[in-house]
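Lab meeting, item 3. Inverse folding demo.
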């Protein structure tokens, strides 16, 4: 593998490019996990893409030098420079964007507003942006988590603070199963249907192919609901490009491309800990692991078909 670093000072963005050895540039994926120090390391996900013959560039949108510190008013117009660099300077013919969890919000905004994106893969996604949060001050900011060309995008408002222990599991009538308190906070934020509708990305105004991936037992938020919402909007709009969804029974929020299990063998040993945080990995471990393996191949195939 070959590595190349980009900085705000020199390039206008932070990026960690990983390329497979002995392969001419063709496909590259912009990987957005959220911040520079996300739970799942985006640079290791970029390495995993190279095992499928696809270059990956991990692009944090906050938390790195020269960027905002947290999930609040993250300006996404810099993605134009990322795409231009990949196409004109690095020589890639096809550019995709990949987002997991909170990264799906920024990936969706990239697909919606930035020209030159061929494919967007939204994994365990949300269909709307959320209100920004300040974890140090333990409060919501009153602003959107994302802006584009200086304008805050509409958002919904989950109340993370002073709403109880987020990892506690409780039965929810909407889900028909036990969900985390965090899941319920997000689901409650969708109850204002006018606000939800205004916050939707309007993906039908994009010009790329879409692949949505989720598990039915997402522990963090209702990602299956979000996928159905986005698919319905694309369908009703008569969206001309390809779009499809992969929903895996009993699978977790942790799904899609993950760091190599062979390269980072400690991951296998850590599944027991993941299961304590993400319940599906303890209750439906085989289904959750199978979903990761199958979705990785499906994502790589979707990109390579371009």
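The presenter then showed the designed sequence:
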């Amino acid at each position: 593998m070959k590595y190349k670093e980009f900085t705000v000072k020199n390039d206008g963005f932070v990026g960690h490019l990983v390329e497979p050895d002995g392969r001419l540039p063709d496909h590259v994926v912009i990987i957005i996990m959220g911040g520079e120090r996300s739970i799942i390391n985006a640079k290791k996900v970029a390495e995993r893409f190279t095992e499928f013959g696809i270059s990956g560039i991990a692009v944090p949108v906050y938390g790195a030098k020269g960027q905002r510190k947290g999930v609040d008013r993250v300006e996404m117009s810099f993605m134009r420079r990322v795409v231009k660099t990949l196409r004109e300077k690095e020589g890639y013919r096809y550019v995709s964007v990949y987002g997991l969890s909170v990264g799906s919000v920024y990936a969706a905004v990239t697909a919606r507003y930035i020209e030159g994106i061929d494919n967007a893969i939204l994994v365990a996604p949300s269909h709307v942006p959320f209100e920004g949060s300040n974890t140090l001050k333990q409060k919501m900011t009153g602003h959107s988590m994302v802006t584009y060309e200086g304008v805050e995008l509409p958002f919904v408002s989950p109340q993370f603070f002073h709403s109880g222990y987020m990892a506690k599991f409780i039965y929810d009538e909407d889900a028909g199963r036990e969900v985390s308190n965090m899941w319920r906070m997000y689901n409650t934020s969708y109850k204002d249907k006018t606000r939800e509708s205004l916050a939707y990305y309007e993906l039908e105004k994009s010009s790329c192919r879409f692949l949505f991936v989720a598990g039915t037992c997402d522990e963090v938020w209702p990602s299956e609901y979000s996928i159905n919402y986005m698919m319905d909007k694309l369908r009703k709009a008569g969206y001309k490009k390809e779009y499809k969804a992969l929903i895996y029974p009993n699978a977790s929020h942790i799904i899609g491309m993950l760091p190599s299990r062979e390269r980072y063998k400690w991951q296998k040993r850590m599944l027991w800990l993941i299961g304590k945080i993400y319940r599906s990995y303890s209750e439906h471990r085989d289904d959750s692991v199978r979903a990761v393996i199958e979705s990785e191949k499906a994502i790589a195939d979707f990109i390579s078909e371009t």
